[in-house]
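New here. Invent one.

***
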Amino acid sequence: MKVGVLALQGAFAAHVAALESLDVRAVEVRTPESLHDLDGLVVPGGESTAVSMAAERAGLVEPIREFVSRGVPVLGTCAGAILLAAECLDGRPDQHQLGSVDVSIRRNAYGRQVDSFEVDLDVPVLRGSAPDDGAFHAVFIRAPVIERTGAGVEVLASVEGDPCAVAVGRTVLTTFHPELTADTRIHEYVLGR
């Protein structure tokens, strides 16, 4: 299996390491040509405006939109979730939204960097797998909040009453950073393992 990791800005190296620990060939995506022959894609966290602008400069906005529409496994984390969302409630006017998942999301909704937090989430789709039968230790860094989910969007986990992991088909968005723990079950779930 060969999975691309958008490598324009943000925490892409940690996703590469997580995928490689699963014996998945990880490819850093920086050009439209990098998307050819991939079995999946990770759109990592970082700063959502910077990721959007870098994707535009690299000519990746439409190629990523088309790639995701094929129904291959896609994981968008934090800023990646913002980019893949239908609507960013407080984004800049020139910020791209790929519209891959019908959610409305608000940037930095939990506050500033000092307001970042960690919490154990109940993730029912992970039940029956080690280590804690569904519990996933989640790291939220200047995290967005999903404020609206559209028809067909499955909520996989919530924090403080707000969805923090959602799925449509094989596309999964998390407002937290699963790559910052040693627990690879979110990546495994997205890849269908």
Observations:
- Helices lie at 12-21, 48-57, 61-69, 79-84, 185-191.
